[in-house]
Amino acid sequence: MEATSVSYCFFKQNNCRKVIKKRKYTYSLERRYLQTVIRKYKTYGIVLGLLLVVIGITALALQLVGVQWTFLQFLEAPGRLFSFVAKLIMVMAGFIILVVANTDWERERRECEGP
Predict the structure, then answer these.
(1) Residue 62 reports pLDDT greater than 70
(2) Does residue 104 come out as left (phi exceeding 0), alpha (psi in the -120 to 50 range) or beta?
(3) pTM of the model
(4) Which of 30, 32, 53 is nearest to 99 (CA)?
């Protein structure tokens, strides 16, 4: 009985509006929660991004000289090309984390919606 009434509710005009309103409310709660999590861990994202960028750039500079960080030695085992690409990815990931951590998502959403 319940399964038919649930599937039938999508064909009724009034019940369908209630279901859609409920979904929007749930979506807004999820978005608010995500925003609070992003704000809460913003400094951690900035620190992680800066560490990845600094360590990656210095590792690339040291690789040109022929020296390497001891904690990144495991990257040299598969080969020099793999190590170079992994360090480039580390730098790019650091920049991406910095951009995401510093973005004001509410302002971006307001600008995209327009007046």
Answers:
(1) yes
(2) beta
(3) 0.63
(4) 53
